[in-house]
Design a protein that fits this description.
Blueprint: E1 2-6, E2 12-17, H1 20-23, H2 29-42, H3 102-118, E3 122-125, H4 135-146, E4 151-155, H5 160-166, E5 172-176, H6 182-187, E6 190-194, H7 195-205, H8 211-217
Parallel strand pairs: 1-3, 3-6, 4-5, 4-6
Antiparallel strand pairs: 1-2
Helix pairs in contact: 2-3, 4-5
């Protein structure tokens, strides 16, 4: 797949061939969904906790005598049926962590990138560089490259000027290319990739191991 390369002013300066193994891979929507569910689950802290009847700070004395009042029989105000009592079957701390083999995670990224490429949502830029942190300059560059669409900007490494210039743009997020993940990839309309970041992606996603091999062997080495 051949794609145009733009500068930060939005003018076409070159064209490159995208690796077919990354941007024209087989699209596996179930695999992308599994990877997304895993990432969202792993982001949960799982620190929720409700106090049971043995943990609430209330008296354990019997409310009133057993007989003669005409009321139902009750023993403790800590019972779940009373306001201020313990919670019956409430949430307890737990781990939501899910595991997923690395080959499957990378296959999901290739599927998502292929979807973006097929929808013409990949924007290549020759270089992303600013002389100083300026939100105005970054906004102008994004307007020229992606117009009014939200954008995930992939950088080859740390670039303080670009990263700081994007912080106040609610529809723009910068991310190091080697930290690419399925949630950010699917959460933005466009993906802006510098040529240097494309090399980083190619280095760890353009591999011979495919998801089809996982299906055949059933495991990862």
């Amino acid at each position: 797949m051949k794609l145009s390369v733009f500068n930060m002013a939005g003018k076409e300066v070159n064209s490159v061939d995208l690796p077919a193994s990354i941007f024209e891979a087989n699209i596996n929507r179930d695999l992308m969904h599994q990877a997304l569910v895993r990432q969202l689950a792993n982001a949960r802290q799982g620190t929720h906790k409700a106090q049971g009847r043995s943990e609430v700070s209330r008296t354990g004395a019997k409310l009133y005598r057993q007989k003669g009042t005409g009321n139902a029989r009750h023993g403790s105000k800590r019972a779940p049926i009373f306001v201020g009592g313990g919670v019956a079957h409430g949430p307890l701390p737990r781990k939501y962590t899910k595991q997923m083999p690395r080959k499957m995670r990378r296959a999901a990224l290739r599927s998502a990138l292929s979807v973006k490429a097929s929808n013409e949502a990949i924007v290549l830029v020759d270089d992303l560089a600013l002389d100083a942190p300026k939100t105005r300059d970054m906004k102008a560059a994004m307007q020229a490259l992606v117009a009014d669409s939200s954008a995930l900007v992939l950088l080859p490494g740390r670039n303080e000027n670009v990263e700081k210039s994007s912080r106040n743009l609610s529809d723009v997020k910068t991310l190091h290319a080697n930290y690419l993940n399925i949630r950010d990839l699917l959460g933005y309309d466009k993906v802006v990739i510098s040529l240097a970041a494309l090399d980083v992606l190619t280095n760890y996603l353009d591999v011979e191991d495919s998801f089809e091999e996982i299906e055949e062997t059933g495991e990862e080495e």
